[in-house]
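Researcher: Let's run the pair from yesterday's discussion. Sequence first, then tokens, for each.
Model: Starting with the first of the pair.
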Amino acid sequence: MALPLLAALLLGPGLAHGQVTPRPNAPESFAALAERLLPAVVNISTTQNGNGEQPGPRGERRLPEMPQFPPGSPFEEFFRDFFERNGPPDRGQPQRRATSLGSGFIIDPAGLVVTNNHVIQDADEISVILHDDTNLKAELVGRDPKTDLAVLRVKADKALPFVRFGNSDEMRVGDWVLAIGNPFGLGGTVTAGIISARARDINAGPYDDFLQTDASINRGNSGGPMFNMRGEVIGINTAIFSPTGGSVGIGFAIPSSLAQPVVAQLRDFGKTRRGWLGVRIQAITPEIAESLGLPRHTGALVASVTPDGPAAQAGIKAGDVVLTFDGKEVGEMRRLPRVVAETSVDKRVPVTIWRNGRQESLQVKVGELEAAEESGVLANAPADRTGPGRNERGQPSETVGQVGLKLTGLTPEARRQFNIGEQVKGVVVSEVAPDSPAAEKGIRAGDVIVEVAQEEVRAPQDVAAKLKAAKDAGRRSILLLVDRGGDLRFIALGLG
């Protein structure tokens, strides 16, 4: 009795009367939309030396196991043929030239195709297979590993069907979407779902801002388009979250608002030309905001500044908090890299910062990220950002019991023990008490405290005095600038 009742609950009361009632506001069918869009979606086939596996989520390239079907099922022979064609070579056998499969879509009738970078990465040959099974050789126009995007070009003897980008910023959680792609090499496959979440950060790259959807996305769907109900591309399917390798209803798409300018730069220049500010930043926690006197824990805290970079030339310093950039609010730390990257190179923009308990306005001339990378400026930026210190010999140690720190001067012995460079100035942490406020914040032996409350410290007594003064003033936390192996980071240390 339970099974019919469950079916009635799932399918709705209309079932009892021989009718199926669609959900409110749901389209009766996606057929007309799919029919219009399918010709512009293509399959991507890449040939390379090595094992052939279908592109799936970034970093995962593994064929699934063959599905189990009842004996004599027509699907059994079909899937056996597919897996024999695409399965990896036997161990011990010489590697063969193998084929990987992915998806893409045409954005220009002259033959421009957008896909994922990981679909065509390391490919010796790239082919684009149209909806009518026409196979065209493709050339790589440009690719961008940071956003996992690539643009291809094919030549055809006729104008090709194409689709246009829409505005992903208009999409709301719960809006219907349609995904079309090439899952498991099966060709133009249409799935539908909704936007499950926005602005997802999955640690895939520096500009993560994914749309999450429950539309089925599997291996081979990578690079395929996600459409709104107007037939506009609002996302590029690129990753899934799955413990099994198959769709579990958690897929991620690059939003069109991020993809469109990157695609335009790849089309025009063959590479990206991103804006560059020249800072290392970290998130603002409530404790850091309290330490800095910020009314809200918003913005991006500048941990260090690249010498002679755009930010340094504009007067931005470590300890500043970037609140707005070019008139755009920096609500959270990861918003800043994207806003800067989307800003035109050499453009002068206003920047609002928080410094010494108040807002200040500066003008920054935006640099070019790729030029900085090619010149080695980013890799070679020195960690030292302090001026000359005084003689460190003979500095005694100091124990700050209230926060669980034992501090020592940066003597030659301490530098050798903790492998600290000569250019680093400050006070070294020699011990951290377990279960102390310092331990809870991840401070460890060998860290060098460069600043306390945004003032330089040179001796253990300096740190102890500033912590005591802050506690006597009734403050709940104090801001430390800590150098760990050349990586500068602010930490809001609780005072109990």
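Model: Moving on to the second of the pair.
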Amino acid sequence: MRVFEKNKDIFQLLSEAVSEGILVVNQERIIVATNHRTNEMFGYKENEIRDQNLNMLIPDNLHKAHDTYVDEFSKTRDQRRMAHGRTLYGKRKDGLQFPIEVGLNPFNLSGESYVMALIIDVTEKKEQEKKIKDLNDQLKQKIKTRTNELEETVAKLTQEIKLREAAESKIKSALQKERELNDLKSEFLSLVSHEFKTPLSGILTSATLVGKYTKEDQQDKREKHLRTIIGGVHHLTGILNDFLSLERLEKGKEVYKFTEFSLSKVINEVVYNANMLLKDGQNIKYPENIDEIEIYQEERIITLVLTNLLHNAIKYSSEDTEIAIKVDLQPTKIIFHIIDQGIGIPEKALKYIFTRYFRAENALLIQGSGIGLNIVKKHVENIGGDIYFKSKLGEGSEFSVEFPLKNSLN
């Protein structure tokens, strides 16, 4: 302490020339000297804090932490900033805390150790930092808000684009369907025109010729042309029935009625009608052991299916061939097989055979609407059955239809 008394004038001269607060403590952490800036900073008069413990300038709640900083400094005693990277606080006379930065400079004088602290009030600096931080936080929030708004806008635009693309796709699909429908209409009209024109022409020709055969010995010729007329009428009736059935299926108006009936009765009717369409030398092999069979099913649909398949077998087979009908009765189902020795189906056409209006390339010159098998398949599936086939080009086809057997008591 006496050392500083001797050098008081020199210390005052040097310390008052700087803008920082200067404070000197001895090894016991007693304040031995301050400059005017330090006194002003902490709110004390000159010499009011001299000979006082350094803790009077430190907030009470920070004494322990400050002691730790001092102990760390004492171990090294090198010139450095105190508590670097941390915010320090001083305590004014009125008890108000304020942020400070402290630089420590150890030195020896006349064999005694001292530490000179350069103190800077950083209140304005901290306030500026806080303002900058607040501005940065506000900016970050604005950026975040704007980013969210942009993301929402992008999401909305993306959704709108998807909706527009979906709408465009629907429009394109609708246009494509309309074009396909127009093509089908054109194809349908052409098909109907051809299908009706050919049998009508045959009916007209035969009707004209029948009138010319008036003699008794010309009865065979008359019967031949009458069969042609009857066959043509049956063919036209079949086409009309197909179109009407197709319309009912498309509109969901088809109603199925299940009854118990004699299987032989149905097959007899189907074969009887088919006999009128047989070509020269063709014959139908009747199924065996069906006279006593009674089944509970949709009689009208079984008749329609067997009629369609049998007529196809006759139409796509040449003269002098056999068409066989086989029946496989099982406990839960009945299976019909229609087997012919006809032209068969090309391999590349197999997967399209049940497609509406489809005609295999080897059947284009043979009369047909291309809707019969499509209708058959829909009816069979509607009542829980199944239809499938096997065919070899030039050797014939076998179509098989399964119908579930229903209990008449249900």
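Researcher: Give me one sentence on the second I can quote.
Model: The mean pLDDT is 82.
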